Amino acid sequence: MKNILLPTDFSDNSLNAIRYTIQLFEHHQCTFHLFNAYTPVVYDLTYVLQSPAQFGLRDPIRAASQKGLDDLITKLLKAFGTNPNHKFETIARFETLIAGIKELISERNIDLVVMGTKGATGAKKILFGSNTVQVFREVKFPVLAIPSDFEYVVPKEILFPTDLEVEFSATQLHALKEIAKLHNSKINALHVNTGYGFSDEQHQNKNKLPTFFDKMAYEFHDVEDMEIPAAIDKFKEEHDIDLLVMINNKHSFFENLFFKDTINQIGFYLNIPFLVIPSKQQ
């Protein structure tokens, strides 16, 4: 039984991510934990330190959050029907999004966090909503981000760009392998050749990587020197990629690619689901 955490703010964006997840794990036994973090519009230090119920604020706000979750389940059951593989749990909690996710990962034995992201918007080509970026940065756990307008397709082709600077581990690659096994997906490891050849460490990591995908469709691609976003875009166009996967290793090319201000200038944005794997889990 998989435990999937689905944070929601009841937006169309988060609903789309939930729909994607239900279809992704259609044939797998899962408990979906629908989580809404709520905070009062107005509260003071006394409210935080003492019981919020004393002020008559907590109950109606929590009730509204819980009703939103209950209505959401009703909507999902109407759309997908009853699946014997699937179970839904709801959590309405007076908490910040990040703290709530961290707590629930431990409390509910979560395997994967899935959330929506608005993707590129406007002239600045913002990659992700601020909440998604925060979760990528602060939650050391596999997070799958779904673009707001993405309609579900079976992830048959998975792109896994890597600079081979990370020492891979079975725990680290578990989420990727689970999804790939479930859908008989092909994993395409992509390395951009800088023209300087591989270091000893990169050679070791390259040789070790296929051992994690034994009896699975796997291919390593070494492409000519170019900007990482351009390499990803080119490969996506040529191979019809359904899912992008990266390891978020501090000081790695992932952090440079996604968390620096220059991202607004390079014209790169995602229109496919994106699985972010931390180098070390919390």
TrEMBL record:
Entries under SUPFAM superfamilies matching the protein: Adenine nucleotide alpha hydrolases-like (SSF52402)
Location of the UspA domain: 1-147
Matches recorded under Gene3D superfamilies: 3.40.50.12370
InterPro entries tied to this protein: Universal_stress_UspA, UspA
Pfam families linked to this entry: Usp
Similarity comment: Belongs to the universal stress protein A family.
PANTHER family: STRESS RESPONSE PROTEIN NHAX (PTHR46268), UNIVERSAL STRESS PROTEIN UP12 (PTHR46268:SF6)
Protein name: Universal stress protein
